[in-house]
Prior knowledge:
The chain has helices at residues 10-14, 52-58, 65-69, 85-91, 93-104, 115-136, 140-163, 170-183, 188-192, 204-210, 245-277, 285-301, 307-312, 315-338, 356-362, 372-380, 388-393, 402-416, 425-438, 448-462, 465-471; strands at 7-8, 20-23, 26-29, 73-77, 365-368, 421-424. The protein is mostly helical and 500 residues long. Residues 440-500 are annotated as: Disordered.
Amino acid sequence: xxxxxxxxxKTELYNxxxxxxxxxxxxxxxxxxxxxxxxxxxIRRAIGxxxxxxxxxxxxxxxxxxxxxxRYRIGRLDGREAVDIPxxxxxxxLQKIIWERLRSAGVDLRATVPVAEGLAFLMLGIFLxxxxxxxxxxxxxxxxxxxxxxxxxxxxxxxxxxxxxxxxSCWSQKVLxxxxxxxxxxxxxxxxxxxxxxxxxxxxxxxxxxxPNDPGRDPxxxxxxxxxxxxxxxxxxxxxxxxxxxxxxxxxxxxxEPVLELLQVACSGLEAVAxxxxxxLAGDLLPRLLHAAGLWLEICINPGFQLASxxxxxxxxxxxxxxxxxxxxxxxxxxxxxVQHYMPEHIDLQDKGEEWVVGQLRRTANxxxxxxxxxLLDFLMFHGDSHQIEHHxxxxxxxxxxxxxxxxxxxxxxxxxxxxxxxxxxxxxxKILGQISEHAAPGTPGGGRAGLRKRYLSDTAASPDSNRxxxxxDLTIRPEFPRRTRxxxxxSSSSAxxxx
Length: 500
């Protein structure tokens, strides 16, 4: 630490007029750096946050990024040890080894040819053809058979565009992000943050990346806690009806929850129109108008809602097709969207002093496919859930590179004795059924999300200060998440559906 370096408290930082971030205790002023950032808008996610883990997962140890950022260092955070990036890599030897092996294998985060972009534009064209055949021509069998695929593809496309998969050119990145954002409009806030923030700060999805499968801090766990039709974890409140959940979980998952979600989305659409006609608060009309237009476009075209078919086809035929398509989608996508995100069997095994990369490996899993046609279908859905391990280790990696990266990570984990979880498709169903059966009885009360967070804080307080400073961002700057916050739409276990 330089003599006379300014020490900032968090209160002081939040009152500063310039954008800032914290990396390993160092306070950086980002105002001049934001327009020069090679990664584009991603740097805006770090504003006002501790971005240590994000920085190390986006930049290799050999990267010059740390040297560049030193020019923007203006001080250190009060109560935190300011550690230079080279020294921080020495404290994370396992993550450094995995990065170095990835580089040695010649696997880059970005593909050298625009395969992802070409595939995305091709798939969007095929989707429009499918939508015309199903919604306008009334091919209901094709609708039921493939609605799940297109539903997942559109959500995965928005997810990929947010992470920068399509950054071969700025034009393709911008166009694909807008198109997928319109077709999956309800998920934009989850992935990109509230539109009022204009891309600044951590969205719910980025918090999921920082704390995957952590019941107290991962917002994706909102569907596993609180009041739920089907109880699959002790953190969810138990009710007498859960004694019968082994019998009723299937109709709840395939019929009741989809119908409730359709009603919820219809109410949201009407509220968006009402906000345009009679706004509850003063403000610009254009953002409300764009939000209403985007929401109703998704309701019309997205395979999960299909309003366009109701405008052309007989009402009862369109309704029957939609409900059957939703039921099939839930059944097919359950293992995709649930198993690798919710791994409660590994939660209590956490060592509070473990390295960041070990926590990521322990709390994520890949889906294992044994036949190439199934693998191809998953590839056309941009590997949205099947390569969670590689995606969490390197969030900016293009899905085109996942297959090669997975070989590197699997070999490295075997050599170093690190966890590497992979779950077969039908194994996923067995896990879900096991969770439903195990938590049908009252058992030990879990205390909800607040109790889990309290337990985490007490465990952390008992751990050595050096480990906490080196590996854990300060808890006081983390937001709390409401129970029903995630608005993803594919294969979730609650009416506020989520997929991964």
